[in-house]
Specification:
By secondary structure, this protein is α+β, with helices and mostly antiparallel strands. 36% of the residues lie in helices and 22% in strands. Strands 17-18-16-15-21-22-23 form a 7-stranded mixed sheet. It has a 6-stranded mixed sheet with strand order 3-2-1-5-14-13, sandwiched between helices. Strands 4-7 form a two-stranded antiparallel ribbon. Helix 2 packs across helix 4, helix 11 runs antiparallel to helix 13 and helix 13 packs parallel to helix 14.
């Protein structure tokens, strides 16, 4: 079917998804992802995680081919391309734009000592006031590991890229990046509003290794002749938007302004809020990056809270506590029979590794207040979901201390947000209204591309057709019960942390 379409790619660590969005209706007409089973992650040593960037390209091609076939769309019909991608990865290319080594991706922890040493040597005040974060395990620290452990390869690096930059390079033959991308790698100086030269100097990186900077919303490059032939696209299609997966998820949910929040609750959980002033948490319990609409003139920062033990805890409860064969929907119905606060049972949900919100402490998961004569499976099920919500709210308190006024939470109607108990507890404790939408990252990237090339004049127009599925308001009559349960949970958490 002929028309005008926007193409969005979402480069994840498990798959690459492509979506086609009709410009006029705003509807997604086709989506596909490859591989259908999770893409491999190579771990040569414990704590390592690598992927071959060529695999992302192959999966992008397969996804694109399917959506074009499913929607009967030709390359002539596609008017712009946007890219979302897994954050913090490192891709190194030589002068021929050939990849020098597998990408060190976001969940690889080998660079932690390099970031920690930089933080100690440069000082907390310097790093936090300029980078808004510790160098941690981000892209800059990963590159430091390469420099120290693979010096010959390092000397052949022409440019470094994030996964989204790589896909854009394969589409266009042009290497560039964004301020938002640089900030997630710890390469952006928020105080001086320029590339973080002091960190480059500390690690011994030449500034030429950084790609040219282009605006997040702009014609960053165009599909080149060779890529057009390989993909069945038209030469010259603008690549006009890219962002990391969490900033892009916020964009997908129309979260652009200070105080607005986007949240996801899959295997792990994320609360991502927009801040209008440059600020940071002195204890680095949350991360702060440039949001998609940050510019040198306008401060729009994305404050990122990540909770590791979210859906993974709910899945563990289903496997080990719930009756055999019980579905998640049936679990949600069963736990709803238990009162707010689970009759005094609390679950500390941090059983999936060290949590940044706890300053990288590893407390493990624990069940507290269990009475063998009073409590059953439904109490543990509800307490687990409440514990996940409470961990979100614990991190949101850090955001509020940074100056964020949280009144509304946007989320996709998926994963934990399918649970009425989860939704009502989050609204009840936070006092925020929850709005659930039908969207995903690749659709958001497509609409971002429409903004970047001028098809949409602003985000209000781009997301005017975003489908709101439901609204959950805080129940003021029950808020005292929710807050009492949250207070008990925090008491138990602090007792465990102090051990």
């Amino acid at each position: 079917m002929s028309g005008r379409y926007l193409l969005g790619f979402d480069v994840g660590s498990s798959s690459v998804k492509a979506s086609l969005v009709d410009v006029d209706s705003g509807a997604c007409v086709a989506s596909a992802f490859y591989p259908e089973k999770e893409a491999p992650i190579t771990a040569v040593k414990a704590g390592w995680a690598e992927q071959d960037p060529e695999m992302w390209w192959k999966n992008a091609k397969l996804s694109l081919k399917k959506v074009m076939a499913d929607a009967s769309v030709t390359g002539e019909d596609i008017k712009a391309i946007g890219i979302s991608y897994q954050m913090h990865g490192l891709v190194c290319v030589d002068k021929n734009l050939e990849v020098l080594r597998p990408s060190i991706i976001w969940c690889d922890s080998r660079a932690v000592p390099y970031g920690e040493k930089a933080f100690g040597d440069l000082g907390a005040d310097k790093c936090l006031s300029h980078l808004l974060n510790s160098p941690g395990n981000f892209t800059a620290a990963k590159l430091a590991w390469v420099k120290d452990n693979e010096p010959d390869l390092f000397n052949n690096i022409y440019k470094i890229m994030l996964p989204g930059d790589y896909l854009a390079m394969r589409l266009s033959g042009v290497v560039n990046t964004t301020i938002s991308g640089l900030s997630e790698g710890m390469f952006w100086d928020f105080k001086n509003k320029e590339t973080a030269g002091f960190l480059l100097d500390y690690f011994g990186f030449d500034s030429d290794i950084i790609a040219d900077i282009v605006p997040t919303f702009s014609v960053q490059s165009e599909v080149c002749a060779s890529a057009a032939k390989e993909l069945g696209l038209k030469e010259g299609i603008p690549i006009s938007y890219r962002a990391g997966d969490q900033p892009n998820n916020a964009l997908s949910l129309n979260v652009f302004n200070p105080g607005e929040i986007a949240s996801t609750a899959g295997t792990s959980g994320v609360v991502y809020g927009v801040l209008g002033d440059v600020n940071y948490d002195k204890r680095s319990r949350v991360n702060t990056f440039a949001h998609v609409n940050y510019t040198k003139e306008i401060n729009r920062l994305g404050v990122l809270l990540c909770i590791n033990g979210t859906g993974i805890l709910n899945a563990w409860v289903r496997r080990n506590i719930a009756p055999d064969g019980m579905s998640y929907s049936e679990m949600n119905d069963m736990m709803a029979s238990v009162p707010i606060g689970s009759d005094g049972v609390t679950v500390i949900p941090f059983g999936n590794g060290a949590e940044r919100v706890l300053e990288n402490k590893e407390t493990g998961c624990s069940i507290n207040g269990l009475n063998f004569n009073k409590h059953g499976k439904a109490h543990i099920m509800r307490a687990a979901q409440e514990g996940i919500v409470f961990s979100f709210c614990y991190g949101m308190e850090v955001m509020q201390q940074m100056g964020m006024d949280i009144r509304k939470i946007h989320a996709g109607r998926a994963n934990m947000f399918l649970s009425d108990v989860f939704r009502k507890t989050l609204a009840g404790v936070s006092g925020a209204t929850i709005e659930l939408y039908e969207t995903d990252g690749s659709v958001g990237a497509a609409k971002g591309a429409g903004m970047g090339c001028g098809i949409y004049k602003n985000h209000d127009e781009a997301f005017s057709t975003l489908k709101k599925l439901s609204v959950i308001e805080p129940d003021e009559a029950q808020r005292p019960e929710y807050l009492e349960a949250y207070s008990l949970w925090k008491e138990n958490l602090q007792r465990i942390v102090r051990k």
